[in-house]
Amino acid sequence: MTDRLDGPPAPPPVSQAVPEAAPEKAPEPAPVKAGSLGPPARLAIWFLLPGVLLLGAMVIYPIIYSIFRSFYDSNGNTFVGVENYATIFNDSSTLTTIRNNLIWVAVAPALVTAVGLVFAVLTERIRWATAFKLIVFMPMAVSLMASGVIFRLVYEQAPDRGVANAIITSVTDVFGSSDGYPDARPRENDRSPVAGQQGAVVTKQPAGPGKAVLLPLVGVKPETLASAATAKAPQPGPGELAGTVWVDFTQGGGGAVNQVDPTEKGLTGVTVEAVQNGAVKATATTEADGTFRLTGLAPGDYLVRLPESNFHAAFNGIAWLGPALITPAIIGAFIWVWAGFSMVLIAAGLSAIPRDALEAARIDGATEWQVFRKITIPLLAPVLLVVFVTMIINTLKVFDLVFVIAPGSVQPQANVIALEMWRVSFGGGGNQGLGSALSIFLLILVLPFMIINIRRFRRDNQ
């Protein structure tokens, strides 16, 4: 029998809470002396020293010596003060170099930046963008000296050697003949049937339809007639006024004056006019044998005239290397060299422009020109400024292209400060005092743009 306990059951035993142990504190690091981590700071001086010495020898010392030398005469023995600097602004040839540099700064950087911008935009819209970039950037792989040699050949005036004039003459030949006889003239005697009249050649006696007219000329150079055909006597048909324009001269002597002889040459491509009462009634052009036929004339008397245009010299290309065009020609070569550099920098800026801004503008109804002008250009402004300032520095220092492209006879008209500095110092002038003054003057011109670029780079890196 089991004993039964009366009363409520006893509560379960309560476990006694044990307090948690506090986490152990990490030991504080011992104080570290300044400079004990890594190599000592003075060791960096030894790594910087070669660069500092090279910078001092190649940049700082030449600048200081040039400043010092600019205050002395050509021999360096006599102190002349600021006389060399005064010469820069008093000498006419030096003023020409300053004027040319101003033209360079005003034109070349803007054109290089604009051309680079156009090329950069094109690379985003054409299929063969990589090949296009390679072709445009290729001149950067060529030295400026070699580029000058290339463009010296491009700008040759003779169309058979100069590429620029070969293209121009090819185009002009499509729209008009380039043949001319600037040396041709009538005989200066009373027996000649033609006479000169205000640059043209006119028959002395009028003739009507059905008549033959002879227009003999002399003075044409033999080399012009090397491929000319033999002249033929005119044979007018009914109602035609026919004739022959030829060189009335038989080599070796002989022949009859004012008659077409068997060995005499005709003049091809000559414009002939039938004139009545001062008005042109008909026009024709001579054939290879010098003959022409004026048709559609009413009965009456007409004077036959060779207009002045027949006696203009044939177009022989533009004088790119002449005094008038030498500076624009060299600027064109400069653009060819640096357009690739400008294109690459601007293309990198274009790739960083957020496309959603451009797409939002197009969705709002903006045209491509408006997107380009009001969105692309403002977002590209920092890159365009860097390219523009860099090109200004390059134009101020330009030397190689001017030295190689400009012939010696026109170098005074194409001269720039850098070339003048070399010329007066080492190119025969022998005046290193004036050359040093020019170098310091050029440094003063370049320095503000270098500071602008440095500040821009620092601001971009912050």
UniProtKB/TrEMBL annotation:
<keyword id="KW-0813">Transport</keyword>
<dbReference type="Pfam" id="PF13620">
    <property type="entry name" value="CarboxypepD_reg"/>
</dbReference>
<feature type="region of interest" description="Disordered">
    <location>
        <begin position="1"/>
        <end position="33"/>
    </location>
</feature>
<feature type="transmembrane region" description="Helical">
    <location>
        <begin position="102"/>
        <end position="122"/>
    </location>
</feature>
<comment type="similarity">
    <text>Belongs to the binding-protein-dependent transport system permease family.</text>
</comment>
<feature type="transmembrane region" description="Helical">
    <location>
        <begin position="333"/>
        <end position="354"/>
    </location>
</feature>
<keyword id="KW-0472">Membrane</keyword>
<feature type="region of interest" description="Disordered">
    <location>
        <begin position="178"/>
        <end position="207"/>
    </location>
</feature>
<dbReference type="InterPro" id="IPR000515">
    <property type="entry name" value="MetI-like"/>
</dbReference>
<feature type="transmembrane region" description="Helical">
    <location>
        <begin position="434"/>
        <end position="454"/>
    </location>
</feature>
<feature type="domain" description="ABC transmembrane type-1">
    <location>
        <begin position="98"/>
        <end position="453"/>
    </location>
</feature>
<feature type="transmembrane region" description="Helical">
    <location>
        <begin position="134"/>
        <end position="155"/>
    </location>
</feature>
<feature type="transmembrane region" description="Helical">
    <location>
        <begin position="43"/>
        <end position="68"/>
    </location>
</feature>
<dbReference type="GO" id="GO:0005886">
    <property type="term" value="C:plasma membrane"/>
</dbReference>
<feature type="transmembrane region" description="Helical">
    <location>
        <begin position="375"/>
        <end position="393"/>
    </location>
</feature>
<protein>
    <submittedName>
        <fullName>Alpha-glucoside transport system permease protein</fullName>
    </submittedName>
</protein>
<keyword id="KW-1133">Transmembrane helix</keyword>
<dbReference type="InterPro" id="IPR050809">
    <property type="entry name" value="UgpAE/MalFG_permease"/>
</dbReference>
<dbReference type="InterPro" id="IPR035906">
    <property type="entry name" value="MetI-like_sf"/>
</dbReference>
<keyword id="KW-1003">Cell membrane</keyword>
<keyword id="KW-0812">Transmembrane</keyword>
<dbReference type="GO" id="GO:0055085">
    <property type="term" value="P:transmembrane transport"/>
</dbReference>
<dbReference type="Pfam" id="PF00528">
    <property type="entry name" value="BPD_transp_1"/>
</dbReference>
<feature type="compositionally biased region" description="Basic and acidic residues">
    <location>
        <begin position="182"/>
        <end position="191"/>
    </location>
</feature>
